[in-house]
Amino acid sequence: MYHISDVKKYLRCPKLFWLSHYEEPLPFNSFVRLDEAVTTLACEKLGITDCFLGARGDEASLALKAMENNEWIVKGRFEAKQLRVKIPFLHKTEQGWDVYFLFCGNRPKDDDMNFYCSSIWVLEENEIDIHNIYILHFDENYVRGDELDPHQLFQITEEFFNDKGNPSKNIKDTVFKRLRNLEDTLNGMDEILKRDVVECTRQNKCTKKNKCRFYDKCFPNELEVDADSILTLVSSQHKYAMHHEGRLKLKDVDLDRIEGSRQQFAQIRASQNDGLYVDYYSLKTWIEEIKYPITFLDFEWETYAIPPFKGMKPYDVLPFEYSIHILHEDGTIEHKEYLGTRDCRRHVVENLIQDIPNEGTIVAYNAEGAEKIRLKEMAAQFPEHAKDLMNLYSRLVDLAFPFVIGAVYDVRMRGYYSLKVLMSLMENQSGYQDLDIHQGMDAVFQWRLLDREDDEVDSEEIRTHLIEYCSMDTYAMVVVYKWLMSLVHERI
Length: 492
Ligand code: SF4
What we know:
By secondary structure, the chain is α/β, with parallel strands linked by helices. The protein folds into three domains: about 5-190, Lambda Exonuclease, Chain A; about 220-275, no CATH class; about 280-490, 2-Layer Sandwich (Nucleotidyltransferase, domain 5). It has 19 helices and 15 strands. The protein has a six-stranded mixed β-sheet. Strands 12-11-10-13-14 form a five-stranded mixed β-sheet, with helices on both faces. A hairpin with a 5-residue loop joins strand 11 and strand 12 (about 335-340). Helix 1 crosses helix 5, helix 12 crosses helix 19 (about 460-490) and helix 14 (about 370-380) runs antiparallel to helix 15 (about 385-395). The longest helix is centred in the last third of the chain and has 33 residues, at about 460-490. Iron/sulfur cluster (SF4) binds near residues 13, 15, 206 and 215. It holds the Pfam family DUF2779. This is DUF2779 domain-containing protein.
């Protein structure tokens, strides 16, 4: 028996489907927290008081039979030609059955048509007369009060949204236009599972959106590429072709076949220049803007699909931790941190305002996409502190900027410029490899255990690991900043 996720994998890449079938599944840990029983809330929105409620492992005939006597079928399991689907809500009307999909996001787009079409194909194969198709989704403007209100939390739409966030295409029309018979696909899936070997064919789908989890397995040679290999060229459409032709190093690149970004330019110049390229003028100009005391700031946060606390909206985030390292002009360094659980938003805000000096530059890594947004969100949720928070916002500078604009490139970066990568270049510095938490999402997963007061875990140990990880981020920023300064000073 197959599920829609299998069809999606097969359509993305037969080898991905084949590997996923035979390899150990990865433990599931969602990037977004969804603690509430979302189906129960949606039932309230739809006014469902009496229904047939399906369950995992149900015979497919159960839901079909239940349709004879029930107005609502919730989580009904249906099957056709070995494909099994779960339909969130089916509602009997005089004109036929209305299908309600549940989208735990703000604006459903038509980018998951394999899911909608596969579900509807199975219903059609079961000769269910479909009258209309709706999607229940979160209302991004809903602000939670003391209690969660499902009637305001959800919206019901008959249309997919476009990239500008406006309703654009009727869902039923779009799905029926794209509906295909899945028999050949399912037969193809059967056939591929009988094979002992499936070839990999490199394709855009290997890295598009989310890099395929089997990438390193399919292309193990890329793990061992030289630091200045042409394969490290960023955002390059033709690097594999050039490599195939024997252009092995960045400096061998065919200039007519690169996109011409500043990062690519920096990479090629570094390869021509014994491994390091520095645009001294740009870097010096950037450093001159930074004033002491310099506060290096990093937040860790949780993202909630459904707002858990008053004043929050769907998909709002809750910063639960920050670390700051303060570098003074005389070279001394101070460290401060905060780590809270549950609704610690106010404590985070008040401690942060107190901990950061009233003057000097605040530096964060990828500040535009993270710390700046967090400060703005906090200002909106705590208007009484908005002035102080927006003052911090106005002093924020992004340490990633010199790397984004290609002002600095060391071939050992191999096309990446995360703090972890940069720290690995620094001699005599202990880096992330010595920590128990190695990346941001691991910190969030650990914090969830702390926040849920899980008796099975050692909260003190988790606290220590979280503080070490967040502190490493701000410490790494100090090290990288000093390195950038040294590059300019060496030149002078
Ligand atoms: S890395 Fe590419 S070829 Fe390999 S399984 Fe993934 S999508 Fe398929």
